[in-house]
Amino acid sequence: MVSNFSAVHPAAGEEQGQHEPRYVDFPIAPNDATWENGEPAMLYAAGVPNEEMMQRAPQVGVASVWWEGNPCNMHLLDLGKTVKEAIKKKGYIAWQYSTLGVSDGIAQGNEGMRFSLQSRELIADNIETITCAQAHDATVAIPGCDKNMPGCVMAVARHNRPSVIVYGGTVAGGYCEVLKKPIDIVTCYEAQGAYLFGTLGSWSDDKNVTPEEILSSIEKGAVPGPGACGGMYTANSLATIIETLGLSVTGSSSTPAASPTKMREAEKVADAIEVCLRRNIRPRDILTKESFENALVITMALGGSTNSVLHTLAMARAAEVPLDLEDFQRVSRKTPFIANLKPSGKYVIEDLFHIGGVPSVTKLLIAGGLLNGKTLTVTGKTLEENVADWPSLPPQQDIIRPLSNPIKAAGHLVVLHGNIAPGGAVAKITGKEGLRFEGEARCFNKESELVTELNAGNIPRDRNIVLVVRYEGPKGGPGMPEQLKASATLIGANLKNVALITDGRYSGASHGFIVGHIVPEAAVGGPIAAIKDGDVISIDAETCTISMNVGDEDIKGRLRQWKPPRPPVTRGTLAKYAKLVASASDGAVTDLF
């Protein structure tokens, strides 16, 4: 019978060390002779070499979120093979498999984006299913793109067997030959906006270069190879969160995909999974309220994506750790924003890697009393012990500011409430766009409607406008699509008199005066559905409010006249998702019953 000390889900809160420190043998299905006889036969055929390994060696699933059509994921099959071989050297049985992924960069601004967020649930379901159905003792999950990251964490938090997350790594910085300057994927979207508004030619000092040549050069140079989008966008935001939570080995989140260091990480991962198996350290031993508090701190300090809120809520729920929007607001108030990283800053994660990476930032934040260094990690050591010998940030650099001289004294993510969002909303306000905005509403029932108006040049520049994009929430989209095409076009068009609010969400690459995750969403009759063109909307990051100049009774009257739109889909995976998905303030999970 195969060794499997974790064939049943342990009780939530079970502490490490309650079981034997060595692998525990017991039958998976002791009363089923067919299963007991059939299982070894199947595993011998799959490559288990002998009876001793069959009886004693733990089975470790190696889940690569791999497919060829996305730079974030295209290298993860090979990385998974390297991890698998390192695990086999420990004398373990390692089984590699793939799960699905979605490229947000390819899906942006089209119908494919509706499938992105639900892929998080499918990834979690997939890994949980294979782990439990095939009786794996442990999991090593290898994500590379936005929804991959929380999907893998949700899976291991659910099955709660010893697990390590290996980040596929960030992409190298891009370069535009025509402009002779560093660029990245977001430059493409902003360049498209400038092109549509006739201003792209001004990006080059060479007046013989056409806008079309600039655009082509940007597209060819923005993504030079494998790895996730390079700024503090969603994938890198979640990678730093996962390392700070303690589920990755030290340095995983900031090591570039193409760096030899990333492949050498495989040996550390094998060591970590051995420690977790021998000491019976399970994900829920690591995923505690204290470690999630740390995750919120690193998010605020480094300028993480608004998607960090949505996904951290979902990961905490999978681990049965209480966490809500007010926790984000509380931590944001006390955490200085110190990172000069894109999208709001100058640098990419590869630059951070060269000055010490996330571990050096962690060391700074522990020394400053902002991070709890006593939390447990997959190395078997505490967060503080992991970074003790790591170099401190060099003084002569401008990527990470000193805690005494932050970019902003408090975090950039602000939780808003008001008569537009009684259930909450999330704003990404770094301070450079101001802290308050007021303007007249211009309403659109899909992002595509707004993009059409932007492309036609129909957004006025002579007064403040609040663009309202609705019916893009978890149920209404369905799938809560990102609004990057619209937000990047606004930046590219240099429309500084505009704010953008939505019940959808934003790419981690979005910046400007933007508010998303408005709850309740329009599709369920939230107040955002009652906004009319011309209503005055006020957004205030200091008072944490978002409201329209319409009285409560008038809003109720408008909503009594409101009729829900026909569901955009009635069959298939998105229809199932729309029926199950919870609100953004609950992490848009699908198991909130």
Automatic annotation (TrEMBL):
UniProt catalytic activity: (2R)-2,3-dihydroxy-3-methylbutanoate = 3-methyl-2-oxobutanoate + H2O; (2R,3R)-2,3-dihydroxy-3-methylpentanoate = (S)-3-methyl-2-oxopentanoate + H2O
This protein's record includes keyword Repeat: no
Pathway this chain belongs to: Amino-acid biosynthesis; L-isoleucine biosynthesis; L-isoleucine from 2-oxobutanoate: step 3/4; Amino-acid biosynthesis; L-valine biosynthesis; L-valine from pyruvate: step 3/4
GO BP terms, alphabetized: amino acid biosynthetic process; branched-chain amino acid biosynthetic process
Cofactor: Mg(2+); [2Fe-2S] cluster
PROSITE patterns from the UniProt entry: ILVD_EDD_1 (PS00886), ILVD_EDD_2 (PS00887)
Sorted UniProt keywords: 2Fe-2S, Amino-acid biosynthesis, Branched-chain amino acid biosynthesis, Iron, Iron-sulfur, Lyase, Magnesium, Metal-binding
Domain Dihydroxy-acid/6-phosphogluconate dehydratase C-terminal: 398-588
Top EC class for this record: lyase
Pfam families according to UniProt: ILV_EDD_C, ILVD_EDD_N
EC number(s) given by UniProt: 4.2.1.9
Domain Dihydroxy-acid/6-phosphogluconate dehydratase N-terminal, residue spans: 58-386
Gene Ontology cellular component terms for the protein in this record: mitochondrion
An example molecular function term from Gene Ontology annotations: metal ion binding
Keyword set includes Lyase: yes
Gene3D superfamilies: IlvD/EDD C-terminal domain-like
Family the UniProt entry places it in: Belongs to the IlvD/Edd family.
Name of the protein in question: dihydroxy-acid dehydratase
Species of origin: Colletotrichum kahawae (Coffee berry disease fungus)
Upper classification of the organism: Eukaryota, Fungi, Dikarya, Ascomycota, Pezizomycotina
